[in-house]
Amino acid sequence: MNDAPSLAGQPGLRRTALIVAAGKGLRAGGDIPKQYALHQGKPLLRHSVEAFVGWPRECAIMVVIGQGQQALAEAALEGLGNVSIVTGGAERSDSVRAGLMAIATQGGSDRVFIHDAARPHLASAVLDRLDQALDAQPGAVPVLPVVDSLARGEGGLMRDAVDRAALWRIQTPQAFHFEAIFAAHLAWPQGALATDDSQIARSAGLDVALVEGDEALKKITFAEDFAMDTPRTATMPRTGLGYDVHRLAAGEELWLGGIRIEHDRGLVGHSDADVALHAITDALLGAMALGDIGEHFPPSDPQWRGADSARFLAHAASLVRGKGAEIANIDLTIICEAPKIGPHKRAIQQRIADILQLHPDQVGVKATTTERLGFTGRGEGIAAQAVATVLAPFPSPSAQDASA
Ligand SMILES: Nc1ccn([C@@H]2O[C@H](COP(=O)(O)OP(=O)(O)OP(=O)(O)O)[C@@H](O)[C@H]2O)c(=O)n1
Ligand SMILES: C[C@](O)(CO)[C@H](O)COP(=O)(O)O
User: Which residues bear the site annotation Transition state stabilizer (predicted)?
Assistant: First the structure.
């Protein structure tokens, strides 16, 4: 199995997420198709789309929906930006083909990640593994081993046992070189049954790499699956602390907490100098002992000149989630004499929640002055401090040994 994620990737490649959400969800029941039903506070489809939005690699997004599902889809995707929507067909493979055709019509792609809307817990580490595998093969799927014994059965009686050693449970996203899977789908006989795209790829002779999947990526199929918590190993809360300061100067834009604030001066720095987002980035990295913002985005690197600090924060969140951790909450304090932060608190809270794919209730935004004392009191600069709490798997014994 290919399991070592590469963070280098191939920067010029065009990647597209093709998320199929055109099913009826009959086995799950309910008033609306399952992909629009709420799971952990958000529609299943939104979870799946947000996983790609939060992936540091740029990715166009195409969602395939069923007839009459436009209003449900628009509500589920509200505020997520540039997401294309196309109508699917009667079978899953018809929906995938419709999506591939729409991508081709819009100028094509180099790589496509075909994903079930019904698999809401997609970690960016899985995407990294698939993407890396596509450097060597035209297709790649995430798989899990079979852990139970297997047998054929007939008439309620067991027949032969089946050797499980070479068998794998296949998940989505299934990743392919776009032209190869598009041609395979066009060649697939209309009406023939394929439960997934790797079968269609194999029928066209494409090699499909097996990469490590994720138990959390389980498909929601039945009503009771909604009740399940994300399968995870034992978790422990971990806390990280971030602190940052930037100087105020005339002629600069002021970016704070991911929004632009009108002010007579702005913060000076190599990036957009958003102290608030920098403090949260460091808090998240610190919570998982992943170093600090300067190690990941060195000020000496020209590519970060003037950069939107939202990119740093989104990357830190993806590193945290890539370690199997969930962000529980953020608490931010901005320290300055001016501008007044109160009128901007809600916008900052919402922006940080959007970047981190959290509910705004998970983001606390506070502000204080220092009673005109010190550099913040004299208006020479703005400081920010943040605390992040994450729920993370316990370190494995081998990781403990390595850090001893
Ligand atoms: N004609 C179809 C059928 C399925 N899907 C999508 O394919 C994924 C996996 O399918 P499944 O879990 O079987 O969903 P449903 O077909 O909706 O479920 P059911 O068979 O219970 O009706 C889901 O995201 C579903 O929306 C699709 O886009 N078009
Ligand atoms: C595509 C899939 O999720 C891969 O495991 C699976 O084959 C979908 O099967 P379903 O019968 O459409 O749920």
Answer: 27, 34, 270, 369
pTM exceeds 0.80, yes or no: no
Place of tokens 């009667």: 90
Q: Which value does ipTM take for this structure?
A: 0.95
Beta-sheet strand order (sheet of 381-393)? 265-268, 235-250, 381-393, 326-335, 363-368
Query: Is residue 375 a known part of a binding site?
Result: yes
Q: How far is the CA of 326 from the centre of ligand 1 (A)?
A: 27
Which residue's alpha carbon is at the smallest distance from atom 5 of ligand 2? Answer: 171
Confidence of residue 379 (pLDDT cuts 50, 70, 90): very high
The model's pLDDT over 97-129, given as tens digits with 9 standing for 90+, comes to: 999 999 999 999 999 999 999 999 999 899 999
Interatomic CA distance for residues 341 and 261, integer angstroms: 9
Ligand 1 neighbours, Cβ below 6 Å, are: 20-28, 35, 64, 88-92, 94-95, 116-118, 219, 221
Q: Which two tokens stand for residue 170?
A: 């296949």
CA distance 86 to 202: 26
Average pLDDT taken over every residue of the chain = 92
Cα of first residue to Cα of last residue in the chain, in angstroms, is 29
How large is the average pLDDT for residues 251-265?
A: 97
**pLDDT score of 3:** 35
Relative to beta strand 60-65, strand 15-21 is parallel
Which 3 state secondary structure label does DSSP give 140? strand
| Torsional class of 384: left (φ above 0), alpha (ψ -120 to 50), beta (otherwise) | beta
Q: What angle, rounded to 10 degrees, do the helices at 275-287 and 309-322 form?
A: 10
Distance 207 CA to ligand 2 centre (A): 20
The rounded distance, in Å, linking the Cα atoms of 282 and 293 is 6
